[in-house]
Structure formats: structure tokens, C-alpha cells
Amino acid sequence: MNVITEEKLKKHYRDNYKYDVTRQFREGNFFEQYWIKNRIEKIKKYITPSEKNILDLGCGTGEITKSIAKAFPDSDVVGIDISPWTIRKAKSYHLNAKNVEFLVGDAFNLKFRKNTFDIVISTEVIEHLLSPELIFDEVSRVLKKNGLFIICVPFKYHPIWQIESIRNLFSIDYKKESKEGGKHYEPFHRSYVLKDLLNVSDKFEYFSHCYAGLFTALIVVLKKSIS
Asked: Of 176, 181, 71, nearest to 121 (Cα)?
């Protein structure tokens, strides 16, 4: 039996996963472009110019990272991803981004000091983890007191996550590349409702939530509740 472990998942996303969000945004169909843009706009509403240090955790090819940096030019935005391939892509796509830095990094072991960031963003990451509480611990460590953790995950009750033919509408690569061996293959994937994320860690308290992408995505904002 091929048992999925956190280490196997990390190896997969580090070495094999080749999902290019920036390409999807630029070349995808209407649904794909809307889905990405709408998530970005919803996330931006929770950020103000007073938040000077922002981390995008699992940034992929950097489309969200770049958009946040552009919207808040006086903030320093860092995007990290476990995949060297996606970070190379991010750097090549966003050469002119002035206040953004892209780094290869492991979300389970962040190379930042305690209380570094005002905001941590994580989109399309938590649903691929067996042990999300470990990520919550690291985010709590690097967030300043009362800092915000903005999480975007699939919304459990939307039919897109149950009906594969609907998912095909939302991605130019999904049908071809979502099977094992494909660049968009996901060994582990789950969807969430609000209470699922509220029960992950006692280091955060509820701040706000909303839905994005025609209710395909749940955005939950948590506030760090300990120093």
C-alpha cells in the first residue's frame, strides 16, 4: 500500500508539481480568470497600508503575491514556495515588482524570526496538508501579536469539488494534467467549512470570513491571539 505521508507530499510539491497560476490567469478561460481575480480582490480587502510586512505562504508562480505588492507599494511582500520550479517562474514573470521577494522555503520550517509579519496569506495550500496544525503553529510564530492569517481553501459544499466535469470548466489544464503523473496532480485534497478551520489551532481566534469565485472558495481570516 502506498501510504501518503507529509514528507511524500512535500517531495511531490517540491519536485513534480508544475501548476502555473500566472499562465492560467493570462491564458485561461473566463471562469479561470474570474476565479483567480476574484480571490485576489477579496483577500486585498482584509489588508490595509499599515501592514508593512506581508508573507504569501505557498505563493506558486506569484500572481497573488505580485498583486498584493502592487496594491500596497509601501509594504514589503515575501512569497515562499517549496518548489524551486515555481519560484523560478515567479521571478521570471514578475521581474519589475519592486517591493516583492520570492524565496524557496518550507512552510513547516519558516526561516523567519518570531513576530516578523503583520499578515500571512495562504491560498490553495492548507487543503493539501495532512497536518495543517503544524503550519498554523509556524504562522503563529512568525506573525506579530494580533496579526492576521488569511486562508483560502475549497468550500466543501460547492459541487465543483464533487463533479469532475464542472472542474474541467475552471482550468485549461485540469482534464489533461490532473491525473497521476500530470503537472497538476494532487495526491491529497480536501475541502472545508468554517468550523473546520476554527478548530485547527487555539493560537488563533476568528476575525472574519467570506466566499470567493462563485462560492467555490472559502476565505477565513484568523487573528493571532497569543504573543
From this structure: 71
Tens of pLDDT, residues 139-183: 999 999 999 999 999 999 887 776 654 555 555 454 454 444 444
Report the domain count for the chain. 1
* 195 inside domain: yes
Query: For residue range 2-16, what is the model confidence (pLDDT) as tens digits?
Result: 688 889 888 888 988
DSSP 32-75: HHHHHHHHHHHHHTT--TT--EEEEET-TTSHHHHHHHHH-TTS
Give the domain extent around 162. 6-224
Instruction: Report how many helices (DSSP H) and strands (DSSP E) the chain contains, helices first.
Output: 9, 7
pTM for this entry? 0.89
In a domain, 110, yes or no: yes
Q: Check which CATH number belongs to the domain holding 173 and give it.
A: 3.40.50.150
